[in-house]
Each structure stands twice: as C-alpha cells, then as structure tokens.
Input
Amino acid sequence: MKASVKWCEEMTFLGLSNSGHRLVMDGNAGATAPSPMEMVLMGAGGCSSVDVVSSLKAQNQPVEACEVLLSGTRRDPSPRLFTKINLHFIVTGALDDACVAKAVVESLEKYCSVCLMLGKGVEMTHSYEIVKG
Output
C-alpha cells in the first residue's frame, strides 16, 4: 500500500491514496478540514464498521444501518498521542444481541487492522446498542 501527502498552503495538506482518492487534512487543529489525528480516529471507526457490518451479514442478520461514535483522549504533552479510544456502535435492525456482541468484539480484538495497531499503545474500549428497525 502506498500514499502521498502534499503540502498545499499554510497548514493544509492534500493526501492521495494508492486507489486514486484525494482528501484534505488541516494541521491547524482541524480549522478547515479534518486534522491528521481526526483521520486516525475516523480510520478506526471506518475499519471496525466494515468488520461489524460484514460480520452481521455473514451471520444472516438483517442489519439496516450502522453508525459508530468515537471518542478519543490524548495526552497533554507533545507528542499528543491517543491514550484512550472508545467506539460505540449503534446498529439498526431486528438483530440478535449475541450476534452484534460477537461482531463488535471480534472486530476490535481480531479483525480491525487499525484498532489492533492502535491497541498496542492505546486503551481501546467498545460498546453497542441495537435500534429495532
């Protein structure tokens, strides 16, 4: 996997993914675009959401929607690393609780590359709720 990041102006940077997608990042605490650390947090949410939805579908669960609310705590001295990240999944559908629990746990502990990588130095927690569709 490859990517590039190019400085545009002031503290704005343009990322280009190997698959040809572009995104803007702002090194000014997210003043005009997501900051790189916000992108890390969203990356964890995106990666784990893919796992959860895929797992629920593989378990023949009628998943209608999935949203993950992420909260991260960063240490104060620089470098401002994440110390804790919580992922709270809100899944919609007539879903079996045990299937959702399995999907969430396995994502964070077994499948999500981003969460597994972050979990080496970050306290990762998770929770979920089911909204009946």
